[in-house]
Amino acid sequence: MIEARRLSKRIADKQILREISFTMQEGRMYGIIGPNGVGKSTLLQLLTGMEPPTAGDVLLRDRVVGAYKRKDLAKWVAVLQQGGLPAVGFTVREVVTMGRFPYQNWLGEETSGSGEVVDDALGSMGLLELQHRRIDQLSGGERQRVALAKVMAQEPELLLLDEPTTYLDIGYQVQLLDTVKKWQRERGLTVIAVLHDLNLAAHYCDELLVLHDGGIEAYGPPSEVIRPELIQTVFGARAIVLPHPDTGVPQILLQSGVQPGELGCRGE
Ligand SMILES: Nc1ncnc2c1ncn2[C@@H]1O[C@H](COP(=O)(O)OP(=O)(O)OP(=O)(O)O)[C@@H](O)[C@H]1O
């Protein structure tokens, strides 16, 4: 279980998060949503212990996150961050193999079959053909898939994703989130993802935590959270919310202040 207790974070005289508390259960997929600059990435960093809180605590499996040794934490917690890949020089396979670091001894040796785990990770992200290519010779979307394959190779039990669909076209956005969802279901993985696309967030996440103005504006299943009033309050955008015809989860159609005719569309 993940627990935030009266968590606050101040950065350079700015109060980003103010005494927020919540719990998250293992084996579920959570989305963190909210406007630009509200503190979503900051919250992710507090949850993994990469950043210390100004006040309050994060508990992972009943233990304060700062009390874990980094390498012990890396055996079950993986983070996919923005721009988290090494810059140049390494091949796709070498980078994905770096995900096995927590399982290696000080000589870089691993006893269990890391080759198979790396092959699986490369295969599930469609990277086998690119495995010997240097990562500086990849597109932004291909790099993002390498970054996900690297965290898969880590075989985490808790996976934190910071805007994982950045750079990906809609086909790969769905492929990536389908893959993550499949792991969550098959391996009991816990996933916490910062997502900007509310439709994807509602589609894939069991629960959504909405940050607004330093606090939690809403927290619950998408059907309870995704409402036009909330979108207006949090994002200042007008939206129509409709159930997805296949799944019934709420999906958003944005409304602009401009009339359809002015947008060049055919009106009634
Ligand atoms: N090192 C820093 N120094 C000063 N301010 C910072 C620093 N890191 C983050 N901030 C500020 O903290 C706030 C929260 O940043 P954070 O990256 O967590 O927001 P976010 O919700 O993830 O934003 P986005 O949706 O734009 O990615 C922002 O106002 C940001 O400018």
UniProtKB/TrEMBL annotation:
The keyword Protease does not apply. Residues 2-238 form the ABC transporter domain. Pfam families: ABC_tran (PF00005). InterPro entries: AAA+_ATPase, ABC_transporter-like_ATP-bd, ABC_transporter-like_CS, P-loop_NTPase. It comes from the Bacteria. The keyword ATP-binding applies. Keywords: ATP-binding, Nucleotide-binding, Translocase, Transport. One of its GO terms (molecular function) is ATP binding. PANTHER family: HEMIN IMPORT ATP-BINDING PROTEIN HMUV. This is ABC transporter ATP-binding protein. It comes from Paenibacillus lignilyticus.
